[in-house]
Amino acid sequence: MTKTMLFLFSCFSICMVYGCQESKDEIPDGNFRLAIDTLVDTKDLIVKHVIVEAPGKRSVKVTKEDGNSSVSNVEPIRDIDTMRVDITFVATLIPRSGSPNMFKWLIQLKSRSSTAGGPSTFEVEAESLDDILQLDLREGLHPLGQDLVVGKFKEEPIILLVK
């Protein structure tokens, strides 16, 4: 388990370093942009780094199956009037003999001024992450103010809202 946590910490560190680059393309009014970097995608570990960019000050919210939300209110970067949030998705399934497997999950939103979200751990009846989690993140432009389903956990939607 120590190796798994060290690996997750390493991946998270890479996400934060990688996330320091700024985009130069303009985003049309009424839209936000998603860029996705899949760092790991196996049957028992998923690590994705998602960059959300939009013009002006925005609120970014990720809502999970259990009703919990992570929200970040973000000011634009000076001189370019664009805000940026880095979202890290990490999910791992830890097998246990004689009892249900453990599911560890992290959704963290990070901007220049704030960090939101955190880890959770609980038991699940699943043999692989595919049995309970599907992430369907689509790069490109998306409309502001509309729920965007970015995946499912136990068949319940994971929703990203940028407004």
Question: How does the SSE layout of this entry go?
Answer:
Blueprint: H1 2-18, E1 31-41, E2 45-55, E3 58-63, E4 69-74, E5 82-94, E6 101-110, E7 115-124, E8 133-135, E9 140-143, E10 148-153, E11 156-162
Antiparallel strand pairs: 1-2, 1-9, 2-5, 3-4, 3-11, 5-6, 6-7, 8-10, 10-11
Which radius of gyration do the C-alpha atoms yield? 16 Å
- Beta-strand proportion: over 45%
Strands, count: 11
Report how far apart the termini are: 38 Å
Residue stretches low in confidence (pLDDT < 50, at least 5 long) are: none
Sheet with most strands: strand arrangement: 7-6-5-2-1-9
Which descriptor suits the 3D outline?
elongated
- Give the domain tally: 1
Q: Given the helix and strand composition, which structural class is it? A: mainly beta
* Series of H and E elements: HEEEEEEEEEEE
Strand count, sense and barrel status of the largest sheet are: 6 strands, antiparallel
Please, what is the average pLDDT? Answer: 84
Helical content class? 10-25%
Total count of helical runs of at least 4 residues: 1
Explained architecture:
- The strands form 2 sheets. The protein has a 6-stranded antiparallel sheet, with helices on one face.
- Helix content is 10%, strand content 53%.
- The mean pLDDT is 84.
- By secondary structure, it is mostly beta strands.
